[in-house]
Write a structure and sequence with these properties.
The complex is a heterodimer of chains A (100) and B (244). With 100 residues, chain A is of the alpha+beta class. Helices cover 55% and strands 19% of the residues of chain A. Chain A has one domain: Arc Repressor Mutant, subunit A. A three-stranded antiparallel β-sheet of chain A has the order 1-3-2. Chain B folds into two domains: 41 residues, no CATH class; 195 residues. Helices cover 75% and strands 0% of the residues of chain B. In chain B, helix 3 runs antiparallel to helix 6, helix 7 runs antiparallel to helix 8 and helix 9 runs antiparallel to helix 11. Classes of the chains: A alpha+beta (100), B mainly alpha (244). Chains A and B meet through helix 2, helix 3 and strand 3 of A and helix 1 and helix 2 of B.
């Protein structure tokens, strides 16, 4: 899984969010390291929705503009968790405290 | 304005809202918007299997065009026809190409196979027969309807089969266009690699006529090395772009 995808899914793990909220949450979670362009975000959202990892759960109109809220699906949550476990295990290889 | 390049079924209004909220410099948004719009319009979000299938159909289109042009080259060099079926061959190849453009695979296969049979009975053009053979094989690959509406494969096939009479500038422009288009959509590069692999059939016949090592190396580089490199590069891009 690519790093931006990981952070997009992570941004949705607590609650559904709209596009701009996903971008700000991704920047927050990655401590400013991942700042997605708007075009990149929507390419990723399109692909993730097609793969069944996220879904649109609500439509609304704010300031005259349509806005959709995206949420993780069961598969999305499982994929995010599997990636987190994989990275944690990989990190353990380096970070585990070695006996003296 | 960039957002209008996206297909109407995309959340264009929502994207405009995000762009307005972010107030990011335009130069940091434009490249991704342009790339995203072009990919959305060309089926850039398809999974890897569909991308390979599209490339196979585009390669078949290239071969049908190249197969139709190859006999013209032969006739220029004085090849004599055995019967008067060449017009029928061209009609079949043309109909097969149109069917590929429209996405009717089995119809395209039927006409490509007809072109192959007619080319075998009438023409002496080995490149045409090789092209129709591989096109027919590629069209046998099952899969959903995938119309090939990109003009680049046809232009590349024309340039490839027309060969030397074409000005160098035109050939160079097409190579540059292919390289630039690969940034958006690698499937045409993949198709070019698959189509060039049809040359293996002609190479198998040419190899008997080549006696020196240098000639064999050139033959191998052109008919094996180049297609292999193109398929390897485009295949890697396909795998990366299909990754979530």
């Amino acid at each position: 899984m690519r790093e931006p995808t990981y952070f997009i899914l992570a941004a949705l793990q607590d609650e559904p969010r709209h596009g701009y909220a996903i971008l700000t949450r991704v920047a927050e979670l990655s401590q400013g390291r991942v700042t997605l362009a708007t075009g990149t975000l929507y390419q990723a959202l399109d692909r993730l929705a097609r793969e069944g990892l996220i879904e649109v759960v609500r439509d609304e109109v704010v300031n005259g503009r349509a806005r959709r809220h995206y949420a993780l699906t069961g598969d999305g949550r499982a994929a995010l968790r599997a990636e987190a476990v994989r990275m944690a295990e990989a990190a353990q290889v380096v970070l585990r405290v070695r006996p003296a | 304005m960039m957002v209008r390049l996206y297909p109407p079924d995309h959340p264009r209004d929502e994207m405009l809202g995000v762009l307005e909220e972010r107030h990011r410099p335009w130069h940091r948004e434009v490249p991704a918007l342009l790339l995203g719009a072009l990919r959305a319009r060309t089926g850039g979000g398809h999974p890897a299997t569909l991308r390979w299938l599209y490339a196979a159909r585009a390669a078949a289109l290239m071969l049908l065009v190249a197969g139709a042009v190859a006999p013209v080259q032969d006739l220029r060099y004085g090849v004599v026809l055995r019967s008067g079926l060449m017009d029928a061959t061209w009609v079949c190849a043309g109909l097969a190409a149109l069917a590929v453009v429209a996405g009717f695979r089995l119809v395209a296969f039927a006409f490509a196979a007809s072109a192959l049979v007619l080319a075998g009975t009438d023409l002496t053009s080995i490149p045409a027969i090789a092209c129709y053979t591989v096109a027919a094989v590629l069209l046998l690959l099952p899969g959903p309807r995938l119309p090939v509406r990109n003009p680049l494969p046809v232009l590349l096939a024309l340039a490839w089969s027309a060969g030397y009479p074409l000005p160098e500038g035109v050939q160079l422009a097409l190579i540059v266009a292919l390289a630039l288009w690969t940034v958006v959509d690698e499937r045409v590069l993949l198709a070019a690699g698959l189509a060039l692999a049809a040359g293996l059939i002609t190479a198998a016949l040419e190899v008997a006529e080549v006696s020196d090592t240098r000639g064999l190396l050139i033959l191998a580089a052109w008919h094996v090395g180049l297609p292999a490199v193109l398929v390897a590069v485009a295949g890697t891009l396909t795998r990366r772009r299909a990754q979530v």
